[in-house]
Amino acid sequence: MAVESTFVQHEPCPKCGSSDNLARYSDGHAVCFSGGCNYYEHGNGQIGQVTQRKPTRSLEMTGVTAAIPDRRISQSTCQRYGVTVEYGTAGQIVKHHYPYHHKDTGAVTGTKVRMTENKSFYATGEFNEAGLFGQQAFKAGGKYITITEGEADALAVNEMFDGKWPVVSIRSGAAGAAKDIKANLEWLETFDNVVICFDNDKAGQEAAKSVLDLFTPNKAKNVTLPAKDAGDMLKSNQVQAFVKEWWNAKAYRPDGIVAGNETWDMIIKQSDVKSIPYPWECLNEMTHGFRKQELVTITSGSGMGKSQIVRELEHYLLGATDENIGILALEEDIPKTALGIMSIEANKQLHLDKTVSQEEKKGYWDRTLGSGRVFMFDHWGSTSEDNLLGRIRYMAKGLDCKWIILDHLSIVVSDQDTGDERKAIDSIMTNLRKLVQETGVGLFLVSHLRRPSGAKAHEDGGKISLGELRGSAAIAQLSDIVIGLERDQQHADPETRNTTTVRVLKNRFVGLTGPACYLYYDKESGRMIETSCPTGDDPEF
Question: How far is CA 144 from CA 79, 140, 148, 196, in A?
């Protein structure tokens, strides 16, 4: 003789994501009752298999129209929706019957039956031609209609509004929400406002997003509930809270669309952005410094002092801010990067000056790397885009770095297997830009130039243009500031040979471009010192 399987508990559904619609039974099998989900687990060891469930019961619509006290649902609400209940021998309600009506004839074609003892559901009849739950009770057109995720929630909303506005429910749960709405969209569109009031769980909110975009712009609104669903709010007597959230529901707009009257806080936040001055005054006059959420690209030909200028900035940030700094120097190892920063602090090239004692070096280290505010990426050479982005995100979010220096972009590109440098740079720059916006960091990026065709080489003092950035126009497009470095390395005059022209190629914050300043490389200290034009001739200023 077969052993009857009994209900054990409700569980989340692994298919549709519903938090409690999966019913687990004593023999191990489980069924999801979210209408269109059709998830079934066998109890004979074949756990996790999905099968289609077909109605096995003929139409069942018995019982009487009465109040449902435990859910605070009145008899008049049940009468409006045609809901009936059945009583057990002890006089308690043992079943709820929720009828579904044919969209055209209005006849009852199917029902959902809820067992109160174990809260399980089963379906009877046919649903192919059925409309939304409760649809037969309301005429087309009107100011408002609310759509819930379940029948009991529809009753609850009707109760909380005392029947003032039409309320219907999708019939297939969160998994089938979009399908149900599409099937009845013409009727729903006759209302001025459609309020989506699905469950406040992952499945419910994802379902809400899937249907909001189906309606005419500005028609649909989404309610975010402070409880799991409308039924729970009614049972806990949170009627006022529900009504407040219902009225506060805002018209749906696709992601990325912002109304002008919602921008004031953004403007105030933007105006409070603090600018950090560069260590060179003339560059500040043109750029007004640098800021968080900016991507600053520094570019030049080979051997023009990019890395030294980056070290100056790294050291300067340690003194100008009290914030953490992340460094990804992909062309040098950690000790070299660390010693370079310490040399700026010492005002001498520590790797060349053998007179500096260990104790002195320790002091320079204590005031820079030893502060606990500098974090470096321990990797020399090329690295993948995903690996790099992951490290930057970790520095920003995990280590609270507010300033990040990446030296340099070409190394990252060399590790990509796309075979297309332009596409690789497009991808990296797009993701770096997103990362800056996501984390709010200030990012300094070092990039190389392509060799000019027919013109004077950059190493011979040739002027830099944005079009000469290597690989892709995305570098210029997605950077807030682009700074080019020019120097004639073969000039007969040693002062000219060691003087770098700093040219602002793009300046989104201020708009000014052109030569900003001159930096002289002092070989004794290894510092980049602001100076005048070595020829004494500044025709471009």
Answer: 21, 11, 13, 11
pLDDT tens digits along 382-401 = 567 888 888 899 999 999 99
Helix (H) or strand (E) holding 350: none
Q: Is 322 exposed, middle or buried (0-12, 13-18, 19+ CB in 10 A)?
A: exposed
For the cut 80, the answer to whether the pLDDT of residue 40 exceeds it is: no
Calpha distance 84→66 (Å, rounded): 7
8 A C-beta contact, residue 329 and residue 337: yes
* Angle, helix 306-320 to helix 334-346, in steps of 10 degrees: 70
Write phi, then psi, for 96 (nearest 5 degrees): -115, 140
Beta bridge partners of 401: 324
Q: What angle do CA 345, 373, 285 make, to 5 degrees?
A: 60
CA 108/CA 329 separation, integer angstroms: 72
- Taking the mean position of all CA atoms in its chain, how far away is CA 409? 25
**By CB neighbour count within 10 A (0-12 exposed, 13-18 middle, 19+ buried), where does 90 fall?**
exposed
The whole-number pLDDT of residue 30 equals 76
| Range 233-260 average pLDDT | 85
pLDDT band at 539 (very low <50, low <70, confident <90, very high): very low
pTM above 0.85, yes or no: no
For residue 386, the SS3 value is helix
pLDDT average, residue stretch 326-352? 91
Q: By the 8 A CB rule, do 159 and 234 touch?
A: yes
CB 137 within 8 A of CB 158: no
Q: How far is 128 from 458, CA to CA, in rounded Å?
A: 73
Cα separation, 253 vs 125, in Å, equals 39
Cα separation of 177 and 314, whole Å?
53
Can you name the residues that pair with 122 across neighbouring β-strands?
113
What DSSP character marks residue 174? G
> Is residue 194 a contact partner of residue 145, using CB atoms and an 8 Å limit?
yes
Burial class (CB in 10 A: 0-12, 13-18, 19+), 58: exposed
Tokens of 252: 């749906």
Query: Given this model, what pLDDT does residue 494 score?
Result: 87
For the chain, give the mean pLDDT: 85
The percent of residues above 70 in pLDDT, for the chain, comes to 86
Three-class SS string for 269-328?
A: HHHCCCCECCCCHHHHHHHCCECCCCEEEEEECCCCCHHHHHHHHHHHHHHHCCCEEEEE
Give the C-alpha separation, 449 to 408, whole Å: 12
Q: Does 48 score more than 70 pLDDT? A: no
| DSSP, res 468 | G
Residue 3 burial (CB count, 10 A):
7
24, β-bridge pairs: 9, 30
The pLDDT value recorded for residue 1 is: 37
Report all structural domains of the chain as residue ranges with CATH numbers, in order of start.
Answer: 1-54 (2.20.25), 69-251 (3.40.1360.10), 281-531 (3.40.50.300)
DSSP state of 340: H
